[in-house]
Amino acid sequence: xxxxxxxxxxxxxxxxxxxxxxxxxxxxxxxxxxxxxxxxxxxxxxxxxxxxxxxxxxxxxxxxxxxxxxxxxxxxxxxxxxxxxxxxxxxxxxxxxxxxxxxxxxxxxxxxxxxxxxxxxxxxxxxxxxxxxxxxxxxxxxxxxxxxxxxxxxxxxxxxxxxxxxxxxxxxxxxxxxxxxxxxxxxxxxxxxxxxxxxxxxxxxxxxxxxxxxxxxxxxxxxxxxxxxxxxxxxxxxxxxxxxxxxxxxxxxxxxxxxxxxxxxxxxxxxxxxxxxxxxxxxxxxxxxxxxxxxxxxxxxxxxxxxxxxxxxxxxxxxxxxxxxxxxxxxxxxxxxxxxxxxxxxxxxxxxxxxxxxxxxxxxxxxxxxxxxxxxxxxxxxxxxxxxxxxxxxxxxxxxxxxxxxxxxxxxxxxxxxxxxxxxxxxxxxxxxxxxxxxxxxxxxxxx
Length: 448
Ligand code: GLU
Prior knowledge:
Bound molecules: glutamic acid
Helix content: 40-55%
Largest sheet: 3 strands, parallel
Number of strands: 12
CATH topology of the domain at 5-82 and 183-235: Rossmann fold
Radius of gyration: 31 Å
CATH superfamily of the domain at 5-82 and 183-235: HUPs
Oligomer: single chain
Strand order of the largest sheet: 1-2-3
Strand content: 5-15%
């Protein structure tokens, strides 16, 4: 089998949302699993709405998700290829000029509706004589160019939806070139997919009809039809569709709220499938789970509350190697022992700063008057010898018989004094990280 080639092709007209992340991850992880190539392609031929700033933000968000594209392309830098394809389609008689304004088209659609006809383009432009065209042009009208559909049942085996068919006889001939000469993605995607040898196109089910059209264009250009898969769409909890333009559930916002990229990735990929939503330790684990046949057909709600829980669960199992760089950036030392001690108590990575403070101090110990003597006694019993993982059990083994205390009356005052907090990581893991001097001072009720 030849290695797969997949692409994620966002238009840089807004910030990526979790639904876009779903598409990006299905493509990137499928390519990765198959030892193939993943292309990040900016569909930026709509110069009125695309901006370099959004392209940059998309690159940042994709990197944040943990995806490193093998290749990055900008459609705006590939215009010569589209020019050539357009010439080819014109020569084949598959691209024709049309001159209707948006108002004229709307009037035509309304008139067809009134007559009980489907509101598709009536191909009036195909009937224009050369003289009529010349007259329109000398009036200052510029044409847009439509692809002449064959009007047939286009079928494909969809990786998600099984056998699919689109009857292109029911569709308007799509506009591929605008009046100003700019290209629509319906064309540019096809040209690029052919030229970049894309083997699989995974995208949202809002593109099913496009696929019918695009398979006709691929055939006209003599390309090989890739394998298509159209996944269900994610919605807001209310059921409302996600909008890049309206900034719904943007990756940027989720990141700023402290959600873990790995949790966002897991939820974006696993929601709306028959697979269980559960934390993963890395993207390879997530890639192994992907099964297009397990994606549901109905839209699926993306629940931010579920994401918060998954962020916490992800942190609780996150290996130190996966987080070391971010801990260093937060100015947190302590190494793997610290991370393993505290990760189970985090709801957000930022919470780690609080536990680092418990280790480093200063901590205001909480000492109930009734416990002061007991704590002073415990301080005196802090063991000599190595300050290691066994120091806490050795200490407790001494404090327990000496004080006659057991259970909560033994453990709780020690925790309150040593950490200043009601609850937290296991003291066995925490105490070796707090120095003997600091521990002794806190037990005596001193800020340390
Ligand atoms: N730019 C298109 C979109 O964002 C790409 C669709 C495709 O993957 O072909 O919807």
